[in-house]
Amino acid sequence: RRPIYLDCDTGIDDSIALAYLLASPEVELVGIGTVSGNVSAARAARNTLDLLHLAGRDDVPVAIGAQDFLAGSFDGGVPWIHGHNGVGDVMLPAAPREPDRRDAADLLRDLAHEHGGALSIVTVGPTTNIATALAREPGLPGLIRSVTTMGGAALAPGNISAVAEANIGNDPEAAAALLDAGWDCTLVPLDVTLENRLFERDCAALLDAPTALVRALGAMLDIYFDYYVPLYGERSCALHDPMAAAIAVGEVRSRRAPAVEIVVDTTRGPGRGQTICDLRGQRLGPVDQPGARTRVVLELDRPLGPHLVERLTR
Ligand code: BDR
Ligand code: CA
Prior knowledge:
- The longest helix is centred in the last third of the chain and has 21 residues, at 212-232.
- Helix 9 runs antiparallel to helix 10 (212-232).
- The chain has twelve helices and 13 strands.
- 37% of the residues lie in helices and 17% in strands.
- It holds the Pfam family IU_nuc_hydro.
């Protein structure tokens, strides 16, 4: 089974991504680091421990990562999207354990050495911990098989500013470090995550699932669905973080994902956090730019929602 390290700001869609990875027979979740974003890094770790406990997986190490970003402070999160506790104000049974003694960057570094070139990274929050790990261990890219990162907007508008997506907009310097590291990287932007959704019937299926973890996900969707009503005109939600997980596992593939130059705007102006993707010359089909190491996912081979629900409820 392929080892995966998950870095997250748990979060409702982070929770779904976590459950999906736990349910995927091809991969082994070997460690999780948390970062501030939807909630504080410490709260995200608590949520993650509690979710793992509900899944009977108290064995997976969870390390608290960055409270603040490389060039800015955590601003308190987004309770109007993910609830005050980050998991849709669902009360999860408390896990009987504490986070790992290491911080997230050290956990990642240790796991990379332990798994010698086989470890894949999935990031579904700001990438501060990855940037810290790269600074501490410049040889990290040589120890990692692949990186899949949910973030950015290629041609779509942003979601925390006109042009910036939240994970990258919260820590543009860290995103730039991740994208410049020279490893095999796949960027999963809003362009595709907003086009894949869960609906009321999916929520009902989750609420009816055989496992307590998945039923808890169904309960979390109540508040998440409300948030998306103005965007979609109906109760449903986008599938941001689960899509990065599914692409990393390989069960959903991209139909169009050219390797292109991507520059993260780290200026202090209105473009801060924008992922400037050089998509020139792509009109007739995907064309990889020579030397580009990051693929940007623009289209999937099949809709994610039905696969996700099937995987979580069987
Ligand atoms: C991303 O921001 C967070 O709120 C979500 O969990 C997702 O990772 C979407 O922009
Ligand atoms: Ca997230």
